[in-house]
Amino acid sequence: MSLRLIVEGSSNAVTEFVEYLRSSTPRYRFYDQSKLATTPNESRIEYYFDENRFLKPQISKKVSKLKLTTMDNNNIELTLLDAKIINMGDGSTYIQGTSFDPMEVPEHDL
Q1: Residue 25's Cα: distance from chain center in Å?
Q2: How confident is the model at residue 75, as a pLDDT?
Q3: What average pLDDT does range 62-85 have in this prediction?
Q4: Residues 84, 64: Cα–Cα separation, whole Å
Q5: Cβ count within 10 A of residue 80
Q6: Which residues of 36-58 are buried (b: 16+ CB within 10 A; e: fewer)?
Q7: What share of the chain is helix, strand, coil (3-state, %, to 5)?
Q8: Edge-to-edge strand order for the sheet containing 28-38?
Protein backbone atom coordinates (compact mmCIF):
# COMPACT_ATOMS: atom_id res chain seq x y z
CA MET A 1 0.00 0.00 0.00
CA SER A 2 1.30 3.43 -0.92
CA LEU A 3 1.76 6.37 1.39
CA ARG A 4 0.70 9.92 0.56
CA LEU A 5 2.69 12.97 1.53
CA ILE A 6 1.50 16.56 1.22
CA VAL A 7 4.10 19.29 1.71
CA GLU A 8 2.97 22.89 2.05
CA GLY A 9 4.94 26.06 2.72
CA SER A 10 7.17 28.60 1.08
CA SER A 11 8.21 27.54 -2.42
CA ASN A 12 11.94 27.40 -1.60
CA ALA A 13 11.41 25.45 1.63
CA VAL A 14 9.11 22.93 -0.07
CA THR A 15 11.57 22.38 -2.93
CA GLU A 16 14.54 21.96 -0.57
CA PHE A 17 12.63 19.60 1.71
CA VAL A 18 11.42 17.37 -1.12
CA GLU A 19 14.90 17.21 -2.68
CA TYR A 20 16.41 16.33 0.69
CA LEU A 21 13.77 13.69 1.34
CA ARG A 22 14.26 12.05 -2.05
CA SER A 23 18.05 11.98 -1.79
CA SER A 24 18.23 10.81 1.83
CA THR A 25 15.65 8.03 1.58
CA PRO A 26 16.61 5.75 -1.31
CA ARG A 27 14.57 3.05 0.40
CA TYR A 28 11.42 4.71 -0.94
CA ARG A 29 10.25 5.34 -4.50
CA PHE A 30 8.43 8.63 -5.08
CA TYR A 31 5.88 8.91 -7.87
CA ASP A 32 2.72 10.79 -8.94
CA GLN A 33 3.79 14.27 -8.00
CA SER A 34 0.87 16.69 -8.10
CA LYS A 35 1.16 20.42 -7.63
CA LEU A 36 -1.99 21.24 -5.74
CA ALA A 37 -1.34 24.97 -5.46
CA THR A 38 1.66 27.00 -6.54
CA THR A 39 2.33 30.71 -6.35
CA PRO A 40 5.66 32.52 -6.49
CA ASN A 41 5.78 32.50 -2.68
CA GLU A 42 3.94 29.33 -1.61
CA SER A 43 3.66 25.74 -2.81
CA ARG A 44 1.56 22.73 -1.95
CA ILE A 45 2.79 19.46 -3.45
CA GLU A 46 1.39 15.95 -3.11
CA TYR A 47 3.51 12.82 -3.55
CA TYR A 48 2.79 9.14 -3.36
CA PHE A 49 5.58 6.83 -2.34
CA ASP A 50 6.18 3.23 -1.45
CA GLU A 51 9.05 0.97 -0.56
CA ASN A 52 11.59 0.49 -3.35
CA ARG A 53 11.55 -3.28 -3.94
CA PHE A 54 14.62 -3.18 -6.16
CA LEU A 55 16.98 -1.56 -3.67
CA LYS A 56 19.73 -3.81 -2.41
CA PRO A 57 19.85 -3.95 1.38
CA GLN A 58 22.79 -2.04 2.77
CA ILE A 59 24.52 -3.13 5.90
CA SER A 60 26.40 -0.22 7.32
CA LYS A 61 27.91 0.30 10.69
CA LYS A 62 28.91 3.62 12.15
CA VAL A 63 32.51 3.38 13.30
CA SER A 64 33.54 5.48 16.30
CA LYS A 65 36.97 5.88 17.83
CA LEU A 66 36.76 6.33 21.58
CA LYS A 67 39.77 7.71 23.45
CA LEU A 68 39.80 7.46 27.24
CA THR A 69 42.39 8.83 29.64
CA THR A 70 42.72 7.12 32.99
CA MET A 71 43.48 8.94 36.22
CA ASP A 72 47.11 7.71 35.80
CA ASN A 73 47.23 9.54 32.43
CA ASN A 74 47.26 6.27 30.47
CA ASN A 75 45.45 6.50 27.14
CA ILE A 76 43.06 3.78 25.99
CA GLU A 77 41.69 3.78 22.44
CA LEU A 78 38.71 1.65 21.45
CA THR A 79 37.04 1.27 18.09
CA LEU A 80 33.31 0.67 18.45
CA LEU A 81 30.59 -0.08 15.92
CA ASP A 82 27.24 1.71 16.35
CA ALA A 83 28.35 3.41 19.55
CA LYS A 84 25.83 5.12 21.80
CA ILE A 85 27.22 7.63 24.27
CA ILE A 86 24.81 8.93 26.88
CA ASN A 87 25.64 11.56 29.49
CA MET A 88 23.95 10.31 32.67
CA GLY A 89 23.94 13.80 34.21
CA ASP A 90 25.73 12.90 37.43
CA GLY A 91 29.26 13.11 36.08
CA SER A 92 29.14 9.61 34.60
CA THR A 93 28.76 8.56 30.97
CA TYR A 94 27.16 5.38 29.61
CA ILE A 95 28.92 3.98 26.53
CA GLN A 96 27.55 1.08 24.51
CA GLY A 97 28.85 -0.36 21.27
CA THR A 98 30.20 -3.42 19.55
CA SER A 99 33.87 -4.19 19.39
CA PHE A 100 35.35 -6.66 16.92
CA ASP A 101 38.89 -7.97 16.83
CA PRO A 102 39.64 -9.65 13.48
CA MET A 103 42.82 -11.20 14.93
CA GLU A 104 40.93 -12.99 17.67
CA VAL A 105 40.80 -16.75 17.25
CA PRO A 106 37.57 -18.25 18.52
CA GLU A 107 37.95 -21.04 21.02
CA HIS A 108 36.36 -24.33 20.06
CA ASP A 109 35.54 -27.22 22.32
CA LEU A 110 37.51 -30.23 21.16
Answers
A1: 10
A2: 92
A3: 87
A4: 9
A5: 19
A6: eeeeeeebbbebebeeeeeeeee
A7: 15, 50, 35
A8: 3-10, 42-51, 28-38
